[in-house]
Design a protein that fits this description.
TIM Barrel; four-stranded mixed sheet; 6 helices; about 30% strand
Length: about 240
């Protein structure tokens, strides 16, 4: 056994807290056991060091459900960042900061969908586990711009095409669809409501969740969140 950490509290995955804990860290860097501080003295484990971290709280790994892998270096956006090395650097950064699972929404090429699925099957040490919504849905001639990704987003202009594109994602094993609904204060076209409805309904019909970037007034957005709190549609709002 490598190290014991004495911490103020441990937050369990269900949100409850356990106080005055000792955390045993194995030689592999993984948590081997969590006990009460009073019980640690009776442990037969061989320990190399004991660290007093009673001003700290230990949390489970967090999840970030809205990121865009490989579109930026943190300053600039460009298709040149769609590489495994850039994505792995980003995933390593997430894990170092306590985020163990990430969902990339709507800006992923097909190979990134396949990469995320492989990483879910075989986790890579030191990297957060990625999930992908694949190719997202935008307005024809509108948002989002294509400059950030090498592959074009879905921009259906009729309901039949929209259904077919959702089914394409379902066949790829994608479990979430991303839809942009934003005209940037009437500066660009917005996805028509019938197309929005078809994308969301077809996603749900195929057992997929849906996530939408929407532009609404603040009050309307609040009411929309309340109305959809029990649905399988997640909304991001911008105002």
């Amino acid at each position: 056994m490598k190290t014991i950490l004495s911490v103020a509290q441990v937050i369990r995955a269900d949100g409850t807290a356990r106080t005055d804990c000792c955390v045993f860290i194995g030689d592999d860097g993984e948590i081997a056991e969590i006990t009460r501080e009073s019980e640690a003295a009776d442990s037969s484990r061989r320990v190399h060091s004991v660290l007093d971290r009673r001003d700290c709280t230990l949390l489970p790994l967090l999840a970030d459900a809205h990121i865009h892998l490989g579109i930026s270096d943190g300053i600039n956006e460009s298709p040149e960042f769609h590489t495994v090395s850039v994505i792995d650097h980003q995933l390593a950064t997430y894990l170092r900061n306590g985020i163990g699972h990430v969902l990339s929404l709507g800006t992923d090429q097909q190979w990134m969908v396949e990469l995320s699925q492989e990483r879910q099957r075989v986790q890579v040490s030191g990297l957060a586990t990625p999930f992908s919504a694949g190719c997202g849905f935008g307005a024809n001639g509108g948002w989002p711009p294509e400059m950030t990704v090498p592959e074009l987003r879905f921009r259906p202009t009729d309901e039949a095409t929209a259904k077919d594109q959702v089914r394409q994602l379902a066949k790829q094993g994608v479990r979430v669809v991303k839809l942009w609904v934003d005209d940037f204060k009437k500066k660009v076209p917005k996805v028509p409501v019938p197309i929005q409805r078809v994308v969301i309904e077809e996603a749900h019909r195929n057992g997929m969740k849906s996530s939408a970037h929407v532009f609404l007034s603040k009050m309307r957005a609040i009411w929309l969140r309340l109305a959809l709190i029990c649905s399988r549609t997640r909304f991001e709002t911008r105002w």
